[in-house]
Each structure stands twice: as structure tokens, then as C-alpha cells.
């Protein structure tokens, strides 16, 4: 964690490299969002989380929206990286798609945080065109990965030729998004095994 308390000149000589410090600031923003919600996540709160002055934060991000856009990009990168890792593993074809979709669901602490941050950003994006456009770009990236996987399954004759990958990608993402939100708001939500079963049943219906 950054420890840059004191003057701006003291902050400028922190040993971390400039790119690393941007990720460190974004990681602090995640922690504050998960703990306190997006409305209470200010540059001052993030600086306090880091043990730095607000000047350290604004040195890397000119305002809260710039930081939020960067942090949202980290959500997308984590998800796409996780899916890419699974694509390289030797798994049964349809089961691999199930595993890829499960990366969206809060089945461990890291994915719980990713989901909470994503939902917080989505709510905040209403009325903020730049954030909404970023959400749409993020969704398009993730949708493209699912489409590619569905097309690969068709080529391997694992799902029906009549299946429209573009349409089914939307359906599958809507399914996992709904399951994820359900896990956040329902007192008696589906557990991780039930979530996996729901996704697996739908994927199997595409055979």
C-alpha cells in the first residue's frame, strides 16, 4: 500500500513506478466502493485509504469520473483475463463455456468485490453519458468473448447449427447478470452450486 503522507514533494518520491501507482489508486477506490458505496467514494476518501494526500490521487486522475472510468476498465480486464485463461484449459467444450460464465458470479471474495463494484458503477452511470458509454464498451468486449466461444462450439458440433451466437450471447449474459444481482439483493439467493446448475442447464439446452 502507498504510504505517501506529507507534502506533494514527498509524495513524488514514493518508490512505486508511475503505472503501478495508478493501479494502486484504483485498487483503493475498489476497497472504498465495496465498503462504503460509490456515493461516499470521494477523492478524499480514496486518499485516506492510501494514506496519501488528495494531491497524489489527482496527480494520476484529474477527477472522480476519470478514476471511475479507469477502475471500471479494471473490472472488464479481470473478467476477460479470467475467461481467456479458461479458454486455454483442456475442458469439455460446453463445460468450458459454463466455467467462463461463472467468472461473472460472486463465487469467491474477489468476484464478490468485482460484482459489487460493477453494480455500483452501473447505477452511477445513469445520467452520466461518459460512464454509460464505458459500460457499453465493457459489455461489448465481454459479449464478443462469449460469441466467439459459442461459434467455436458450433464448429465442434457441440451446439445446434440453428443457434444464433449473437442472440444467445445476450441471453447468457442476461442470465449471469440476473443471477449476480440476485445474489446481492435476495436474502435467500441461489448458492454457488445452484447458480452453476442454472447456467449449465441453459447451456445444455443449446445442444
Task: Characterize the structure shown.
This protein has 207 residues and is mainly alpha-helical. The protein has two domains: 8-60, Arc Repressor Mutant, subunit A, CATH 1.10.10; 72-204, Tetracycline Repressor, domain 2 (Orthogonal Bundle), CATH 1.10.357. Helix content is 73%, strand content 0%. It contains ten helices and no strands.
Please give the domain count: 2
Supply the helix-strand structural class: mainly alpha
Q: Say which CATH homologous superfamily of the largest domain is assigned.
A: Tetracycline Repressor, domain 2
Give the overall pLDDT as a whole number: 84
CATH top level of the largest domain is Mainly Alpha
Task: Figure out the total of helices.
Answer: 10
- Specify the helix fraction band: over 70%
Give the CATH architecture of the largest domain. Answer: Orthogonal Bundle
How many β-strand stretches? 0
Rg on CA atoms, Å: 19 Å
Question: Which runs of at least 5 residues are low in confidence (pLDDT < 50)?
Answer: 1-18
Shape by Cα distribution:
elongated
* Beta-strand content bin: under 5%
Output the helix-strand order. HHHHHHHHHH
Distance between the termini: 48 Å
What is the third-level CATH name, the topology of the largest domain?
A: Tetracycline Repressor, domain 2
The multimeric state of the shown protein is single chain
Q: Largest sheet at a glance? A: none
Amino acid at each position: 500500500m502507498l504510504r505517501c503522507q506529507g507534502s506533494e514533494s514527498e509524495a513524488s518520491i514514493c518508490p512505486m513506478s508511475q503505472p503501478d501507482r495508478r493501479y494502486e489508486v484504483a485498487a483503493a477506490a475498489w476497497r472504498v466502493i465495496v465498503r462504503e458505496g460509490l456515493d461516499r467514494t470521494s477523492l478524499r476518501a480514496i486518499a485516506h485509504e492510501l494514506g496519501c494526500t488528495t494531491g497524489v490521487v489527482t496527480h494520476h486522475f484529474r477527477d472522480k469520473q476519470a478514476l471511475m472510468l479507469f477502475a471500471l476498465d479494471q473490472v472488464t480486464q479481470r473478467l476477460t483475463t479470467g475467461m481467456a485463461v479458461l479458454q486455454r484449459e483442456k475442458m469439455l467444450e460446453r463445460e468450458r463455456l459454463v466455467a467462463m460464465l461463472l467468472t461473472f458470479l460472486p463465487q469467491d471474495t474477489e468476484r464478490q468485490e468485482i460484482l459489487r463494484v460493477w453494480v455500483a458503477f452501473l447505477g452511477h452511470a445513469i445520467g452520466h453519458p461518459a460512464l454509460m458509454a464505458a459500460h457499453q464498451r465493457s459489455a461489448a468486449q465481454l459479449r464478443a468473448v462469449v460469441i466467439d466461444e459459442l461459434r467455436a462450439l458450433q464448429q465442434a458440433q457441440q451446439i445446434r447449427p440453428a443457434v444464433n451466437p449473437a442472440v444467445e450471447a445476450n441471453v447468457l449474459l442476461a442470465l449471469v447478470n440476473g443471477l449476480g444481482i440476485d445474489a446481492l439483493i435476495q436474502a435467500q439467493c441461489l448458492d454457488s452450486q445452484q447458480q452453476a446448475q442454472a447456467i449449465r442447464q441453459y447451456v445444455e439446452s443449446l445442444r
